[in-house]
């Protein structure tokens, strides 16, 4: 059965091709419709590469956003997405980093 998956993807910036010790990173949550989690992962990996891009910053340096991988993949257990549908959740204890 085809269903929906949420995938959290990690991207990392490089400036002029030089990785930084503390690079700027982005997590992006996307929806993917697929037959199973393996198919969803394949789609997500392809999408991640497609989303890589580069541009010149105000200093004239080239900033490149590189797909680093999938952080999390969740089966939404839904065949249809409707208003209010949960697309991502994360359990944590109060006081953990990031909260």
From the structure above, extract its key features.
99 residues, alpha+beta, 4-stranded antiparallel sheet, 4 strands, 41% strand
Give me a quick take on this structure.
With 99 residues, the protein is of the alpha+beta class. It has one helix at 37-51; strands at residues 3-15, 25-34, 53-56, 62-75. Strands 2-1-4-3 form a four-stranded antiparallel β-sheet.
Characterise the protein shown here.
The protein has one helix at residues 37-51, and strands spanning 3-15, 25-34, 53-56, 62-75. By secondary structure, the chain is an alpha+beta fold. The chain contains 1 helix and 4 strands, in the order ββαββ. The mean pLDDT is 90. It has one domain (3-75). It is globular. The protein has a 4-stranded antiparallel β-sheet. The chain starts with a strand and ends in a 24-residue tail after the last strand.
Topology:
Blueprint: E1 3-15, E2 25-34, H1 37-51, E3 53-56, E4 62-75
Antiparallel strand pairs: 1-2, 1-4, 3-4
């Amino acid at each position: 059965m085809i269903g929906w998956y949420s995938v959290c993807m990690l991207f990392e910036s490089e400036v002029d091709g030089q990785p930084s010790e503390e690079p700027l990173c982005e997590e992006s949550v996307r929806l993917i419709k697929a037959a199973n989690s393996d198919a969803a992962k394949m789609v997500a990996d392809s999408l991640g590469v497609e989303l890589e891009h580069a541009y010149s910053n105000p200093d004239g340096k080239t900033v490149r956003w590189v797909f680093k991988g999938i952080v999390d993949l969740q089966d939404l257990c839904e065949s249809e997405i409707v208003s209010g549908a949960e697309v991502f959740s994360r359990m944590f204890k109060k006081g953990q980093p990031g909260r």
